[in-house]
Design a protein that fits this description.
Elements lengths: L2 H14 L3 E6 L2 E5 L2 H7 L3 H10 L7 E5 L12 E2 L5 H13 L2 E6 L8 E16 L3 E11 L5 E3 L1 H5 L4 E2 L6 E3 L6 H17 L4 H20 L8 H14 L2 E14 L1
Parallel strand pairs: 3-4, 5-11, 6-10
Antiparallel strand pairs: 1-2, 2-3, 5-9, 6-7, 6-11, 7-8
InterPro entries: YqhG (IPR024562)
Protein name: YqhG
Organism: Sporosarcina ureae
Length: 259
């Protein structure tokens, strides 16, 4: 996942949750949290318990999130956000807790003409490649429910649009031909193809490292029959560490009606 994609996700997350973007550019964001978001992500329950008990005016925190430190040379302070960082994982989890799927409409300015909006399903996937090391990637894909056309980097596309959870007037929503459930199946197939196209030499390297360490373990316990319990425990731990695994999680998604 590129820093620009992370930045787009952060901007969308805070905007959709009514957190004001105080200032920023394509490399960082300074955000004023709402009371609800502060309680969800800032981990300061004693502060909120005190404020509510004495009925004082709350002061939700501000966050500066930096997505590309190399582009900032003025000594700016803030949290560096990258795929794998605790804060980004936390926001993924909050997204799940608050609702994985949304229904949004592209905002249309008042017009005398009736405009048509086309239904799309968009999904953000997190793919984890795990062995003795872990690499995580975020993929965003969308599918047109009329034509079946698939668009990659869908999140970046819709981030440019003015979306609302309320439909504009004088708008006709095309009924979808491909059902959302069927669309999700197709997007899952797209992600599978993307994974198959990734460089999977790490699998061979992990298995090679696994065999090497297993040979050392076998040599150490050579001649001991039956093998002691500690051998089996070390063998199991080695398998858990080196066995290549690929997991796919849905971060969020939705049904979008777009021009």
């Amino acid at each position: 996942m590129h820093s620009t994609e992370i930045h787009t996700y952060l901007h969308r997350f805070f905007k959709e949750n009514d957190c004001e973007i105080l200032h920023g550019n394509e490399h960082y964001l300074t955000v004023q949290l709402t009371i609800d978001m502060d309680k969800r992500i800032m981990n300061r329950p004693f502060y909120w318990r005190y404020i509510e008990s004495v009925n004082e005016t709350p002061n939700p925190a501000q966050l500066t999130l930096i997505t590309d430190m190399q582009q900032l040379h003025n000594g700016m302070k803030g949290e560096i956000i990258h795929l794998g960082s605790p804060r980004l994982h936390q926001l993924f989890q909050v997204t799940k807790e608050m609702g994985q799927f949304v229904k949004m409409y592209e905002h249309i300015e008042d017009t005398s003409e009736q405009l048509i909006l086309t239904p799309w399903v968009g999904v953000n996937y997190k793919v984890s490649f795990t062995s003795h090391q872990t690499k995580e990637m975020l993929y965003s894909v969308g599918i047109n429910l009329m034509t079946g056309a698939v668009v990659k980097e869908f999140q970046e596309t819709i981030s440019m649009l003015d979306l609302s959870d309320q439909s504009s007037e004088q708008v006709f929503h095309l009924p979808y031909i491909i059902t959302p459930v069927r669309a999700l199946d197709r997007l899952d197939a797209v992600i599978t193809q993307v994974i198959e196209g990734e460089d999977l030499t790490w699998v061979e390297e992990a298995e090679k490292r696994w065999r090497k360490d297993q040979a050392v373990l076998d040599y150490f316990y050579e001649g001991q029959e039956p093998k002691p319990e500690c051998y089996e425990m070390e063998k199991q731990a080695m398998e858990e560490r080196f066995k290549p695994r690929i997991s796919v999680d849905v971060v969020n998604g939705g049904l979008f009606y777009l021009k």
